[in-house]
Design brief:
Largest sheet: 9 strands, mixed
Strand content: 15-25%
Number of domains: 1
Distance between the termini: 24 Å
Bound molecules: NADP nicotinamide-adenine-dinucleotide phosphate
Number of strands: 11
CATH topology: Rossmann fold
Structural class: alpha/beta
Order of helices and strands: EHEEHEHEHHEEEEHEE
Radius of gyration: 16 Å
CATH class: Alpha Beta
Low-confidence stretches: none
CATH superfamily: NAD(P)-binding Rossmann-like Domain
Amino acid sequence: MKRYAVIGASSGTGLALVRQLAARQHTVRAISRRPPQAAPFIEPFAADVTDAGAVEKALDGAFDAVFYTVDIHGLFKPREEIRATMYQGSVNAMRAAAKLPIPPKFVLLSVIGAERPSWVWWVLNASKPGMQRNILDREQALKNSGLPYVICRAPKLNDEAGGSVPVVATSAQHRLDMSRGIPRNDLARALILAAEQAPPNSSWDLFSDSDAIRPATPLFATPGEQQPSSMDP
Ligand SMILES: NC(=O)c1ccc[n+]([C@@H]2O[C@H](COP(=O)([O-])OP(=O)(O)OC[C@H]3O[C@@H](n4cnc5c(N)ncnc54)[C@H](OP(=O)(O)O)[C@@H]3O)[C@@H](O)[C@H]2O)c1
């Protein structure tokens, strides 16, 4: 049995992670402002990532990995408020994790193609000012943190049930567009594999691919190479 922390645990991918980890009988500390209720293997912990002290308390303990899946809700918020959550919140979590006696693997859920121009980024930056910069800066902060890390970049997320289309992992190389997507449930499954299997200090693009070859090879089998590896649906 392992012990994990999920930061951003109330909804979306973070909540899917919490449920999947608990279903595997791993203890999971579910951290967010309004965390899910306590249940077998689930320890809720209310904390706002913009409060460094609160995040430090939330991460007090021993963890095999910390998943960071926080996203800011709502559109057209002030740039400073978005940065405080998206960037500074992640840095607060990294600093708290780095202070632990055994620094855990830090799995950051990020966005595909953050360094590449794309009309999708234009839309995201218009509705959430500074979004692309924040995504890039938090990836760089993690690389500089000294923590063992895995950066998992995803395309557009959806709430389909998942489990029907293989997920592929490639080196981080794709442009963000609307041609790729991934169900949050499948993404959560892939993030757990990333925590367990991905080489430390690696970055990946993760997305659904109905053309992926079966039988699947291990999802994170080809670090830094062009060939995708896939996870069975
Ligand atoms: N949406 C997409 O299409 C897309 C595409 C690629 C990558 N991503 C990335 O995927 C990640 C997750 O997205 P999602 O849509 O699955 O999640 P989501 O449903 O938007 O959940 C975001 C989580 O962040 C928590 N949160 C927000 N502000 C917080 C704060 N100040 N302190 C603590 N927790 C806070 C929320 O809980 P509380 O409100 O209870 O605090 C919630 O649990 C994000 O990092 C996003 O950048 C999203």
